[in-house]
From TrEMBL:
NCBIfam families assigned to the protein according to its UniProt record, in alphabetical order: proC
Descriptive protein name: Pyrroline-5-carboxylate reductase
GO MF, one annotated term: pyrroline-5-carboxylate reductase activity
Domain annotation Pyrroline-5-carboxylate reductase dimerisation: ranges: 167-271
Entry superkingdom: Bacteria
Major localization class: cytoplasm
One GO-annotated biological process of the protein: L-proline biosynthetic process
GO cellular component entries: cytoplasm
Annotated NADP(+) binding sites: A77, V78, K79, P80
Enzyme class: oxidoreductase
HAMAP family noted in UniProt: P5C_reductase (MF_01925)
């Protein structure tokens, strides 16, 4: 399935990953994309990367054309506090459009009130969408149709894993997979630092660390085994890994990750206020 005309509000990190991923995966033609961003630097980035797309500074251009007139789907990819100002712009009429928001913490009720209808989907994606390895969850408001869900599944499914959840689970999703890539980048960087400390060249250490994280993730997904069992299989009796595991447990790495997920989820709940 190819996506219809899409207008994206905001052209930052997450739009680049999600929309860029969809174009790369072939479900969206750049010629069907209108991208709104206030700064000329951002518009220039999109125009250079995807010459067929249309970029606009705001909801209308100098010729009086609306960014929304010909689109069927609108993706809101601005920071949470920019959602309200965007939706209260008198030039923004989203009647008859499927509206998708990726703003952390912003409830469906806020968006449906702002757009004036409830054909609205709230999504929590993540940046590995850019390379087709995203993890996203979404929740729908009342007027979303089966064919709208197909469009959302096409968008998110083309760039990775997608699952429908109830809205009250989206803060937890933010804690695990929305913010999650940042925790794992930190882990990869730290593993590489450890490799350098133990005598490896930086490039070799980084490649080994990144591939190890990818391999471990693929083992969990492809074997279906419990991660605890997969961990036990690496720990030879009296060996190297169990010596390392003891250090990780003494430093409460498990508790730190649990607290990190909860801190992100709590912040997402705060953003709703
Ligand atoms: N980054 C991530 O990993 C994830 C982010 N999200 C969510 O995605 C959303 C965007 O985050 P992110 O991409 O990181 O943020 P960025 O700051 O990178 O991008 C925000 C974009 O919004 C644009 N913008 C600001 N004001 C307006 C406006 N009035 N009208 C149109 N566009 C505007 C900015 O334009 P300009 O560049 O011209 O200033 C910028 O391109 C957030 O709500 C966040 O919660 C969700 C999941 C993961
Ligand atoms: O840090 C943030 O607020 C956004 C939402 C999830 C990931 N990045």
């Amino acid at each position: 399935m190819k996506l219809p005309q899409l207008t994206v509000v905001g052209g930052g990190q997450m739009a680049r990953a999600l929309v860029g991923g969809m174009i790369q995966q072939g479900v969206l033609d750049a010629s069907k994309l209108t991208l709104i961003a206030p700064s000329s630097n951002t518009r220039q980035w999109w125009a250079e990367k995807y010459p067929d797309c249309r970029t606009m500074e705001g909801s209308t251009n100098e010729a009086g054309e609306s960014a929304y007139a010909s689109c069927e789907i609108v993706l809101l990819a601005v920071k949470p506090h920019i959602i309200a100002p965007v939706l209260s712009d008198p030039n923004v009429d989203l009647g008859g459009k499927l509206v998708i928001s990726i703003a952390a913490g912003v409830p469906l009720a806020t968006i449906t009130a702002g757009v004036g209808h409830s054909r609205v989907v709230r999504v929590m994606p993540n940046t590995p969408s850019l390379v087709g390895e995203g993890a996203a969850a979404y929740s729908t408001a009342e007027s979303v149709t089966g064919s709208d869900i197909e469009s959302v599944e096409t968008m998110l499914g083309s760039v990775g894993y997608a699952v429908q959840v109830s809205e009250n689970q989206l803060d937890a999703v933010t804690g695990v997979s929305g913010s999650g890539p940042a925790y794992i980048y930190l882990v990869i960087e730290a593993l590489a630092d450890g490799g350098v400390a133990a005598g490896l060249p930086r490039k070799t250490a980084l490649e080994l660390a990144a591939q190890t994280v990818r391999g471990a993730a693929t083992m969990v997904r492809d074997t279906g085994e419990h991660p605890g069992l997969l961990k036990d299989n690496v720990c030879s009796p009296g060996g190297t890994t169990i010596a390392a595991m003891r250090v990780l447990e003494q430093n409460a790495v498990r508790g730190a990750l649990i607290d990190a997920v909860n801190a992100s989820a709590a912040r997402s709940r705060e953003l709703a206020k």
